[in-house]
Specification:
mainly alpha; two-stranded antiparallel sheet; rod-shaped
Amino acid sequence: MLLPPVHAFRANCLILLGALLAGGSLRAELVWSPGTGWRIEGGVLSGLMGDDARKATELMNKARQSEERRDLGSAAKAYESVGKRYGNSVFAPEAYYRAARMRLDRRQYFKAYENFQQVLTRYPSYGRFTEIVGEQYRIASALLDGARNRIWGVIPGFPNREKAIEFFEILIATAPYSDYAPLALMNVARAHQRLGNDEEAIDALDRMINIYPQSLLAPDAYIKLAQTHASLVEGANYDQGSTKEAITYFEDFMILFPSDSNVGSAEKGLAQMKEVLAESKMRIADFYFYKRSNYQAARVFYNEAITVYPDSAIAAKARDQLVKVEAAATAAGAAGKPAQKRFLFF
């Protein structure tokens, strides 16, 4: 029995589809050889047909010829044209990848990164994902270390560490489970520290230890987080929020990584922070004792100084002061003077 033309066409399509599925992928492959240039092999889904396929092939071959002549600027432009004009074709990811390579050779770091990013976001099945993420990491690292993006591939621009931070953050968002993501976060912190952005550096380090606690970089993140908080401490006369944060992270580091080579530095940093915090408690206690005759408040803060750093010279001094407080309180009671009970914080 003969099928109507429409049904016959559908049947033939189904037979072809079944044969392709049985024999391999529907997706066509892009292949290059010196003799034939770029050509499409295998599969039927190239994204282009007829005249468009011919034009895309010609443009790809033109780009490759420029590449072979080391006319990298022209090659990059031609490859980028393929990506923009034929973005849904099998040519596009290869074109963007090769354009990125050309731009990178010319030290046009910004355009190279952007072309690599086009491949990662628009063509995730392209087979160079890890390689491209690695190249993006190296571009961002170079910019962080002072490499200058070249305008037109010739004129060096100004160092741009803010761009390095932007590129690292894009990498982290695009490839959060790659080996490069924890490294990128550590570099974000390093970049912010170099730029004097301490709060942003702390945020990056905090993300590092929370998102990648099993990373080999976690110990470094903890110790740097503690040291960054410590760097914000201005002394015993000022707010002790950063001092307390530094103490917490130094202690966490020593508990979590007792065999790490930086334990000695952590112990030293912890002692310094405890000394500052204990001294702060002492100064508040002295204020209540000598300036307000508030013996109750003085007792509280002298005892806190002892609790913060019990085996220190400051703790010994606080114990001596407590003896004086008790003597003064007793004398005031005998003289009938009312002891102040109100805390006067300042």
